[in-house]
Amino acid sequence: MRIAISVSNGFVSGPGEGDEVWIVEVRDNGTYEVIERYENPAKYAQQVRGIFMLRSILERGVDTVILSEIGPPGYRWAVGKGIKIYIFEGHVDDAIKAFINGELTEAQGPTHEEHHGHHRHHKHFEEERTSVYEILKPT
Question: In sequence order, what are the residues at sequence separation of 6 or more whose Cβ sits closer than 8 angstroms to the Cβ of residue 106?
């Protein structure tokens, strides 16, 4: 099975905010491999950016995506095209493992209203992870 993930700095992102899109091959034995990484086409869109990312995964034959969030236009478009959406906030490796372990449930609606407008809103995860490593550095 192949899944797509919107990624920024190693963390799951929204479809319109991610820097990259990763296509991951998930095997029946629970292992996985990133088989493709490409620049998120949403980066250059002016409106409904997430739809550009979602369209790109369909073009690659992928109909399952893990995102940190999704707005109403992207959600409606994805559901209309048969894309399964899973929401996860955190590191991409943790998201893949949670998916493999059956710990994610399919989204039942958008995670926010129209005109969302924040970018890289999951920076706090990066700060948390960095701060943990900062205290381990020698002084």
Answer: 84, 85, 86
What is the domain partition of the chain in residue ranges? 2-134
Instruction: Compute and round to an integer the Cα radius of gyration of the chain.
Output: 15
Distance CA 66, CA 49 (A): 16
Give 32-78 pLDDT, tens digit per residue: 999 999 999 998 887 778 899 999 999 999 999 999 999 999 999 99
Write the class of the CATH domain 2-134.
alpha beta
Tokens 């590191």 belong to residue: 91
For residues 100 and 66, the answer to whether their CB atoms sit within 8 Å is no
The stretches of 13-65 forming alpha helices (DSSP H) are 49-59
pTM exceeding the 0.85 threshold for the entire prediction: no
Residue owning tokens 């998916």: 99
CA distance between the termini of the chain? 46
Residue 21's alpha-carbon distances to 30, 32, 112, in angstroms, are: 21, 16, 21
SS3 category, 37:
strand
How far, CA to CA in Å, does 107 sit from each of 71, 76, 86?
12, 12, 5
